[in-house]
Write a structure and sequence with these properties.
This protein has five helices and 14 strands. The protein is α/β, with parallel strands linked by helices. It has one domain: Ribonuclease Z/Hydroxyacylglutathione hydrolase-like (Metallo-beta-lactamase, Chain A, 4-Layer Sandwich). 45% of the residues are buried.
């Protein structure tokens, strides 16, 4: 399974968009970068599906363009006019060469899911390796309407409860990918979230 962050060099604000090449070629989120379709086509002419972690604008602004270009399936927890498959908590979806379990992880977004296999997690924005607030264990912001720090904390705990021991690859919605002790990164993020401090103090 080969994972490529096709928005790594984006100049405009966007989420990370991961092209996963394998037996089933999948895009995790669609991002907000102009040229996403062209970036995908640099690596493949075919997509089997787009899987959404959640539907904030920086993750889905280019969804229409991607689906129009590749005529593929769309998996999401939350309702969307272009969704072809509702991905509920505990259901599995094939991404690349592995089977991923969808874990419902709200707090940052009401429709947020994380995707976990025996080796890899696509964590969206609920927990990230690094960002402008923290290195080695950060978490999604919860200071906007409809967000909840308490619910996000419970979501991070749920990930830890259901995370297989062999997970060594973490691909988050923002920041850098991480390879190593993923559980320790997530536990660090949980500890920081539980301090209840503002993520971005004024």
């Amino acid at each position: 399974m080969h994972v490529i962050n096709i928005t790594e060099d984006a100049e405009a604000f966007t989420s990370n968009v991961y092209l996963v090449i394998g037996e089933r070629t999948v895009l995790v989120d669609a991002g907000a970068m102009d040229g996403v379709v062209e970036a995908v086509r640099e690596h493949t002419d075919h997509l089997d599906a787009v899987v959404l972690t959640h539907q904030h604008g920086d993750h889905v602004a280019k969804l229409d363009a991607v689906l129009d270009a590749f005529d593929c399936e769309c998996y999401a927890y939350g309702e969307h006019d272009l969704r072809t498959h509702h991905l509920d908590d505990g259901e599995t979806v094939e991404i690349g060469d592995e089977s991923f379990e969808a874990i419902y992880t709200p707090g940052h977004a009401a429709d947020h899911i994380s995707l976990v296999s025996n080796s890899t997690i696509f964590s969206g924005d609920v927990v990230v390796h690094n960002d402008a607030a923290f290195d080695y264990g950060s978490f999604g912001r919860t200071d906007m309407p409809g967000q909840s720090r308490e619910r996000l904390i419970e979501s991070i705990k749920e990930i830890l409860e259901r995370l297989p021991e062999g997970v060594e690859h973490m691909y988050s919605g923002h920041g850098d990918e991480f390879h190593g002790d993923v559980r320790d990164v997530i536990e660090t993020a949980l500890s920081r979230a539980e301090q209840r401090k503002s993520k971005y103090p004024e």
